[in-house]
Amino acid sequence: MRPRRRPGGWVYLVLTAVVGASLFPLYWSFVVSTRDNSAIGETSPLMLPGGHFLENVRRVFDTVDFWLAMGNSMIVSGTVMVSNVVLSTVAGYAFARLRFPGRNSLFLLVAGSAMVPAQLGVIPLYLVVGDLGWYGRLEAVIVPGLVSAFGVFWMRQACEGAVAADLVDAATVDGASVLRTFWHVAVPAIRPQAAVLAMITFLGAWNDYFWPLVVLDPAESPTVQVVLSQLASGYFTDYSLMLTGASIGVLPVIVLFLVLGRYLVRGIASGVRYG
C-alpha cells in the first residue's frame, strides 16, 4: 500500500479561505449588531465590534416578544427533528433490510413524493388545518413536518451501506426480534447519518418562514423567522436591530452544530460513499 501523502500548504490555504468566506457573513452580522444604525452609513467598512450589543438586545426584546418566538421555534424544530429521525430511521431500515410485499413499489412512491413541489400542497394543507381547528396553533406547523420523504430516503441509503445484510440475518438466526436487531445492530451503525438528518431537519424547521406566517398568528404564536420579519418592517430598516435579532436567533443552531459536530463529518462522508 502506498503511504498517505500529507496535504500541501496550498490545501490549508484554500480551506482557510473557504472557512473565512463562510464565516464572514455571520461575523459581519454580529459586528453590525454591536453598533448603532448610523454606523451602516459610514464609508469605512465595519470590521470591529462596537459597544451597543446589550442595548440592541434590550431593544429587540422591547420591540417584539422574542422569548415567545424562541420558545415556539424550539418546540416546533425540536419535535420535528426528533420525529423525523425516529420515523425516518425506522422506515429506512424497513425498506433496506426487511422483506415484505410491495417494498420496492412503496419506496418508489415515497421517493417520488419528494419531487412534488411543496407549494402545490399549500392550499389543500391550509384547508385541512382549518378543518382540524389548528389555525394559530403550533400543531399546524409541527404535524405536516413529522416525517419527510428525504429523511426516509437518506436513512434507507444509510442502512443499505452501513448495516450488512449478513449481520441482520445472523441476528435473526440467533433469535433476535426485528426490534432488537434494529436497536442493537442498525442504530449504532447509522448514528452519524442520523445526526446529519437531525441537523438538516432542525435547520429547515428553524428557518421556515412561509408556512408559519400562513397558519400562525404573528401576535399570539410567532416563530423566530416571523418576528425577524417584523423587526425588518417599518418606514425604515434598522439594520442593527434586525441583525441583533438574527444573531440571537442563530444561537440554537450553532449550539446544535457543536453538539452534533463530531458526527456530521462522518455522516456526510458515509452518505456520499453509500448514496
From TrEMBL:
Compartment list: Cell membrane
Main location: membrane
ABC transmembrane type-1 domain boundaries: 70-260
Family (UniProt): Belongs to the binding-protein-dependent transport system permease family.
Transmembrane region(s): 9-28, 74-94, 106-128, 134-154, 189-206, 239-265
InterPro entries, sorted: MetI-like, MetI-like_sf
Membrane topology annotation: Multi-pass membrane protein
Descriptive protein name: Carbohydrate ABC transporter permease
Record flagged with keyword Transmembrane: yes
UniProt keyword list: Cell membrane, Membrane, Transmembrane, Transmembrane helix, Transport
Listed Pfam families: BPD_transp_1
The keyword Cell membrane is annotated on this UniProt entry: yes
Position of the signal peptide: none
